[in-house]
Amino acid sequence: MATDQPSELEQCFEKLQKLISQHEHGKIVKLTDTILRLSPGDVDALACKAIANLQLGEYEEAAKVLAHKQLQQEMHFERAYCCYRLGKFDEALKLLGSVSEAHASGALQLAAQVHFRLDQGAACVEACDKLKAAGQVSSLELKTNLLAAYVSAGRSAQLPELMRQLGMKPRDSFEIAFNRACGLAEVGDEEAAETAVKAAYKQGEEALFDEEFSEEEVLGELAPLTVLLAFLLLGSGRAAAALDKLQPLVAGDIHARELAALAANNWAVASYLTDAQQKGFYSRSIRKLESLLDKGAGGGSLALDPDISTRLNAQQKQLLHLNRALLYLLSGKLDQARELSGLLLAAYPGDASVVMLQAVLLAKSGKAAEADKLLAGFSPSSSSSSSAEEAARPTLLRAQLALEAGNAAAALQLLGSGLPAELQMRPAVLATRVALHEQTGDAAGAESLLQSALKHWQARSAAAQRDTAAAAGLGWCLQRLVALKLSQGAAGDAMSLYQQLSKLGGAGSTTSAAAMAQLARAAAASGDAEAVAVLRKQLPAAYASLGTGLDPDSLEDAARSASSSRRKEELARRRQEEEDAEEAEAAPKAKKARKKRKPRLPKGYDASKPNGGLPLPDPERWLPKWQRSDAKKKQRRRRDRQETVKGSQGAGKVDEALDRGAKAERGEEPEKAKGPAKPNLPARAGSKGKGGRR
């Protein structure tokens, strides 16, 4: 009985099943192409090919396969993932809404990733919370992503409680420790964040070296931690240390392009803070930031490289462009700076930094009035979440431009009514306002400002018992008021203010000591004994006993006698110097001793041998060369050389045997001329020689 043989298509599907179990994705793609030639539009073959392309990272090929009508109604999750990997985030979110229940958990994870890439922190955390509520957050990777989502959403303060709920600890993995350090940095605890990121780096090194990673691979894997540590060092004013951390990343080849972008940006900032005048700094920094742009987008665009653009948030992208514009400005490339600032102003119209950059460029071009008008009309965008300090930066720039123009009154007005009340009393702003009042000759205005600032800091100090900023502001105001009262001649008011200052900071504080020195000088000049007695009581214990038991009259007499004795000593010293100078001129000058030089001996000289081991000198070396004994030998050789025939033809002695005319005179027959010798040619073939060809 005959058996039916399987067809070629069936054999291909059997082979495909075997390749799928072996995870041979490259061979699966080739085999599905064969199947699709045999059976065009086969749904199973198309699905297998799409999955294999996704596994191989060939997302564009997978998108082409998934575009077939047969797959559009079924593989929504795969299509969404493919769009996510290609950077089509909006389309991916739209497709995730049609995913079936079978892929619900995967759809939530993918939605969280898409929201994270779109810098939508709240939506990302919402998707992660749904996963947590469904009990789907079990793996360490998902827990790490959940921490990252909370940090990106600005909810870093909730990380300790979240880690407690999930049973996570920083020592579980260096990725978790890194996310915890990022959370600490966001809430403003830089010191704890620096400690945490250093511990995470050490933990990561140990784990990766145990897995036999090379040093270059470890450097690349831990690049996020290095960038974060450099950021914290920059924030604490340690630019040189940050530069040392970033230099290996900038000089090496980091696989993650977004980390290379952040490292290049922070490296430029650290280099500028360390030494902006170093040769080639601006050109190197500009080249590094320009290398991050999308080469295919051309000029006049803010497009970054796709690998960078899809992995950085909006704030990071804006900072990259802003720093590049600042480098153009500082390096004198004003045309490029204007072009880039125009693009930034169109992309971020409500951002204070962009508007300030545009204003500085206008001022550089001599258009200070237009710059002031631009800053005066600036209002932060409603979507901007900037603080009051950031919103006040344009006003501070207006004041600076007014000062550069010599308009101190306008700058004073801007620093007063143009700023919020809290910022008006900041030490730096307050000191500038007081200095401007004094510069314009308004002492009353300076005193009124200091009095109001004193009340402000007193109220704040009373509200918070351990407010160091309030104590520092209060001490500064009291010291400046003491100096102002002394300049006005009001020593009594200055003394009462000093009493408050001494109670605030103690008699031994730096601020109190400066005010005490001012008061002491004023009391000594005016002869105020009461003020001197009060100041003496305020002296520290180490100085209070100095001068006790001394009589002022005896001190004055001692000072006079000391002064008289010093004058006498000075006169005696000068006379002695004059006498010494006269004696030195009258005394005969001693001859300078000649310096003995070490003799220079010839090469190979040996003192132990006769004549130093050298050949004896020629005894005739003093005679002229023509009188020496060897001169005759040289002359004889010279004559021998001259006897030889030299010169043109016919010169010198001629051989008579060659002269034909002389032979004829002697009766001898001349020899017949012979022709040239004939060459011996080989015999021709077929001639008399034998063996020729017939």
UniProtKB/TrEMBL annotation:
Cellular localisation: Cytoplasm; Endoplasmic reticulum
Highest taxon in the source lineage: Eukaryota
Entry's transmembrane regions: none
InterPro entries tied to this protein: Signal_recog_part_SRP72_RNA-bd, SRP72, SRP72_TPR-like, TPR-like_helical_dom_sf
Annotated segments matching region Disordered: 546-694
Compositionally biased spans, kind Basic and acidic residues: 566-577, 618-632, 653-674
Principal location listed in the UniProt entry: cytoplasm
Record-annotated Signal recognition particle SRP72 subunit RNA-binding domain positions: 575-630
Keyword Plastid among UniProt keywords: no
Biased composition (Basic residues): 589-601
SUPFAM superfamilies: TPR-like (SSF48452)
Family the entry assigns: Belongs to the SRP72 family.
Function: Component of the signal recognition particle (SRP) complex, a ribonucleoprotein complex that mediates the cotranslational targeting of secretory and membrane proteins to the endoplasmic reticulum (ER).
Protein name: Signal recognition particle subunit SRP72
The species this protein was found in: Tetradesmus obliquus
